[in-house]
Amino acid sequence: MNVTTIEEWDEVYKPEKNWLDDNASWGGALYETYGEEVKYVFSQPTNRVWTYVDGDSGTYLATGVKVCNRIGYLVTDVPWTEEMEIQVSEDA
């Protein structure tokens, strides 16, 4: 599936609510990179995990579990079928 915007991504992949933190970022869906939250993320099928990362020209969502430059993780109801990155924001 060719998704190019965060709005499309949200509609297609449907991020689940972070049930471990009522005050999670990303509309309540972002999982932290430590503790119980990351343990939960790592227990999920890889094709349902996305990593929110800080890149050279902004922030991105990347398929799978990444550890370099990670900000947090999202777990989706709909699995991804091909590796991709989606730009979330651009550096000014």
Terminal CA distance reads: 29 Å
User: Helical stretch count?
Assistant: 3
Unreliable sequence segments: none
User: What percent strand?
Assistant: 25-35%
Number of domains: 1
Principal-axis shape equals globular
From the alpha carbons, calculate the radius of gyration and give it in angstroms: 12 Å
Q: What is the mean pLDDT?
A: 92
**Biggest β-sheet: count, sense, barrel?**
4 strands, antiparallel
Lateral strand order in the biggest sheet: 3-1-2-4
Based on secondary structure, the structural category is alpha+beta
Oligomer: single chain
Number of strands: 4
**What share of the residues lie within helices?**
10-25%
Order of helices and strands: HHHEEEE
List the helices and strands and how they pair.
Blueprint (H helix, E strand, L loop, with lengths): L5 H8 L11 H4 L6 H8 L6 E7 L2 E6 L6 E6 L9 E6 L2
Could you walk me through the main structural features you see in this protein, from its secondary elements to its overall organization?
This protein is α+β, with helices and mostly antiparallel strands and 92 residues long. The protein is 22% helix and 27% strand. The protein has a four-stranded antiparallel beta sheet, with helices on one face. The longest helix has 8 residues, at 6-13. 21% of the residues are buried. The protein contains three helices and four strands, in the order H-H-H-E-E-E-E.
